[in-house]
Structure formats: structure tokens, C-alpha cells
Amino acid sequence: MAAPSLTNRRTLRGWGRTAPSTALVVEPSSCDELAEIVAQAPPRGVIARGLGRSYGDVAQNAGGLVVDTHRLTRVVEFDEEHGVITAEAGCSLDALVDVVLPRGWFLPVTPGTASVTLGGAIAADVHGKNHHRDGAFARHVESLTLITPAGEQLELGPGTSGFDATAGGLGLTGIVARCTLRLLPVETGQMVVTTERARGIDELLAQLTSTDHLYRYSVAWVDGRARGAKLGRSVLLRGDHATRDDLPGGSLARERGRRLGVPPAVSAALLLRGPALSAYNVARFRRAREGRSTETVDTFFYPLDAIADWNRLYGRRGLVQYQFAVPFGAEETVRSLLERFAAANPVLVVLKQFGDASGPLSFPFPGWTVALDFAASTSGLAQLLDDADEVVAQAGGRIYLAKDARMHASLLERMYPRLEEWRSAQSALDQNGVMRCDLARRVRLVTR
Amino acid sequence: MKDALGRIQRVLVLGGGSEIAHAVLVALLAEGPLHAVLAARRPDALETAELERLGATVERVAFDALAHETHTAFFAEAFAGDDVDVVLVAFGVLGDQEHDERDAAAAVAVAQTNYVGAVSALTHVANHLRAQGHGTAVLLSSIAGQRARRSNYVYGASKAGIDVFAQGLQLALAGEDVHVMIVRPGFVRTRMTTSLKPAPFAVGPAEVATAVVAGLHNGSAVVWAPRSMRLIALVLRLLPTRILQRA
Q: Which domains does chain A have, with CATH numbers?
């Protein structure tokens, strides 16, 4: 390649550390290089990759080209008065928080890790604990610059088919070069959190239904191994940004705790199963102190970011995260799935309500969503999740493609009824089939 | 594409009539549906009913291991469509030791298929898998390649050659997500061996298949089937030549 970008052939895998593949990785240092890179894409195409936190194979492209955006991290413009920021696609949410929080702003939507780039947040149309009232990430994007597979530079705004197909489009419409984001005003860097316990699934769903509207953020940690009458027992964590009335003297400084590491040789797979996990879950449920407390934005939103490389805890075979959503009314489906999953030692289970849907391939839609982490070595996992897929599809639900690493292509159309709409917008932008990734091949997302 | 749980979507079998390859496909089908491309000299003669009943879609194509000049086009075509997750290099001939050791042309024919044909196939396969960025080539080698034996050295030498060739490919592909897995069965009861008296520790194709599928999941470089063959190979290599002259 003629461009001055760094290139090397590398093995890439998702955060789950499963299904690796080899690609030529290019690391451009300016957005201007993107068009040139796309124009020179090899036969097996190109995909952008941010910080690699997608669990599955969505940000890898076997035998093709992968554009690593880690050098495209400039903040182009920050309107402190109105809370609007324009930054390059490789800019992480973590870096953005550092820039905007001291000025009284916060991310309008954030997932459970800050190690996500702007480009990745748009490609997955990520959601956060506030989806029930604020929607997904792309709803807060005023505009984005897309390098199309034809090498054009497009300015796209919400409501255009190109924008809507890019939001949640898994990077297959082109490469996002930069975007402009509307921020949320905050008065402090602290959160006021209300902790409550629910003794079972009925109580949990009832509580979320009746009182979620009182909180900007809501998530339930579920004891995934509890069964029978205790099925779905959980700890509800709900809250909002602390105002200065809540916390007189509360500052806008970002207070980060210490970051722990996981030594490479550690495989705590043993800790993650059976009795140890049950004991942990019981303890977490029992010890949850009900009532109000204050937390930093980092401990509230990004608890796992405090442990670098926590995915290594799952050992050599890695982990699979399974996240599904089903519409309101399908509460029985949530219950029956939690029952099935309880036997397979889910390590981490969270549940929340979704609000309005957005783009045609965007995951969230009004209903319930549950995310579960499993060790990939769990016996019978493949069949368990295949069966769960069928139950989810039957209930009118879907699974989150940005996290997927194992679903069958045959379910795609049932789970994403607006797939054809997305495909036609995608193929209008990518007439030569340049944008490719392993996930797209595996589930036949793009048909050429 | 292979998925996070190691399930395979598409398999190319070179030597589509191989009973071991068939058993491997049956074992893979227990984990989920797949597409199998069976390549053989006479594709029309290949049985597909059982595989289809088990959920496979099957394609039959013509492939002649000896016709090296056709291989470039054959593999270009085989890799032109969806990604190939696994290639089973399963063709081979046993020959007739007593006859072949005196008939130079016959001995060469065994080497041509088992060694030269497989060298050509593995080279093409490795190139395509490297370009694809993922995938596994599985070579059906043999315990017979571990030490010359009086009763099967024509066959054994061809397996020894291709076994070393595959080991070399493993070295060459280090660092890529492309793997070569060498399968070294002992005596397997198949059509190919019906004329022979089963050796100790003889196994059926299904037992080899189980070991192959486990090896694919584990990312093994070498699979012995049954596992005791590993020890037997070690003993064979240490045996004094005097004893081997009789066996």
C-alpha cells in the first residue's frame, strides 16, 4: 500500500477471545487516508475496528483488510456552551468523558465499558442503562462523516437512509471518520444510586415497570443461578447524575479508582463455575444494601473497566455473551429462558427495559433485554443457545448482532424484520461489496 | 465461518469416498448443519443420502489427485464461493505390498497418489486458506509412516513423506489462523483394509472421527487414533531393526 499508514498481518479476535482470524491491519493516522484505503481494499474487503470490545467476530475480517482507528482520536470541536462535540471515530468514550465532564457534560448514552470508540458506538448503536428513556447512541448523533466504500465522503444526518443504516449497521455501510454528538448536562461527576432487591422475576419486572420512569438509569443484576421460587432474584441499581442540590460541594472532577490487572497465566475458569459462583451470587444478593448511595460515574457505569483484561478470566476457550430482547408481553419467555440458562452457570446476568427502537438493524426495541456471560467451554452451550434463539425468535425477539459469535444465518430475517430495508440502503452505499466482516459472512448479512 | 463454539459451516473433502471422512462429517453434523463438498475421481458414485438425512447440504465435484495440472483451477473454484472452514485431505491408496515392492511402476503409483498428489493438494489448500485468513486442513496420515515395516513400507513411505510435509506446513503457517492437523490412525477397519488381518488396537472410522472432531475443537496439531497409537509409534521407533525384519 502506498499510503504512509502502518500495516501488518495480525490475528484478531473479539473480546470473547473466540474464533480468531487473520487480516491485514492498517492504522491510518488521518481521516484523509481512509478514502484511499477503502479504494485499495483487497478482494476480501475491509472493515473498521475500534477498541475490540465487541464479544464476537464483528470487527474482524479474515483474509481482508481491517482499519484500526486507534490513531484517529482528535477532538475536532467542542462547543462547551451548548454541549456539542465533534471528534474522530477512533476517539474513545473514556477520553471523551475526560474532556467533557470537567466542563459539565456527560455522554448522552454509554455502554458498560468506556473502552468503546465513537465509531464502534455508532456501528453497534450501543445502548446504556438509560435506554428506556433516552434511546440508543445514534439518537444523540447530530451528524456523521462516512467514508463510503466508493471512497466518497458523505455528511449524514438522522432520518436519511444512509445514517439510519449506519447506526447499528455494524460498520458495513462504510467507515465513520468523525461524528458530532449532543452531550448531557451534568452538575457533578457523581451518581445518586438507589439499590433495591427483588426476590423473584415477577417482583423484578413489576418494579421496573412501575418505577423505571423515575430514574434516568436502570439496570438489574440478576442471580442467574437461582431457580424455582427464587428465579430472577436480583439487585436493582437505579439512579441519576447527582445535582449540586443532592451533593452540595460535589465537583465535576473525574475520580477513578485503581485499575487491577489479570496476570496472563491466570485462568480462573474454576472460580467461574458451580459452587463458587453460586456462593458469590448468594452473597451479592444478600449483601446488597438497599437505599440511596453516591457513586462515581466510573463505578456506576464501568465497574468492570476497573479490571484490565477481565475477559482472560474465562481461560483459553474464552467467553460468549448472549444478549436477547423480547417485546413487552413476552414476560413468560424471559422467565422460561432464565430457567433454561440457570443450569449452564451464567457468570453475569443483567436485565433492563428498552425504550424506542431506531435504525433498521439497530438492536433495541421496546421490551425486555437480558445479557448473560457464559464460559465458551460450558458443555452443551451451543445447543442451549440455539434452542434459546428459537424461543426468542418465536416471541418476536432478537439477539444482539454486535455481541454475537454463534447464531445461525437462518434466524436473521425473523429476528430483524427490517433487514431488507437495511440491505437495500447498505447495498446502495456499497455497490461493489467492499465492506465485509467475519460476522457478515457467518450470518450472511450481506448477500453478495 | 467457524463460530465461537467451534462449529463449522463448510467442509471440503478431497477423497469424498473415504469412510473416515464420511464418519468425520457425521460427527460434525451432530453439532449442527453444514455444507459438504465431496471431491472424488468419480463423484457420481458418492453416497450422500445419509449426510443429507443428518442435515448436510452436499455437493459432489470431480477431483483427481494425480492430475496435478487440474489442481490450480480446481482449488480456485472450490474457494470461490463461501469460506471453507475445514479441508479433509482423505484420498489415498493402500496398494498391494507384495506386488508393489517388485513392480516399480506400481510402487510409484502409490507414491504419486499418497505423496505427490497430497503435496499438490496441501500446497494449494494452504495458499487458499492463508488468503482466506482462517481455516484448517486435516491430513489423514497413518501410523505406518512412523517407522518402516516389512509388511507395508511402500504405503508407509508415502505417508511418512506427506506427514513430514504437513509438519513443515505447520511451521510455515505459525502465526496465522490457518491450521494443519495431522491425523495418525492405527489400523482402521474400512473397505481399504478388508483384505488385511486387523492389527492390534484396530478401530472403526467412527472412533477416528471422534478424535478428529475433538482435535478440531482443541486446535490440535497431531491427533492419534486411538490415542494409544502415540505410545505404539514411540515403541515402534525404538524397536531394533532385527525384530522389524519379521513384522
A: 190-410 (3.40.462)
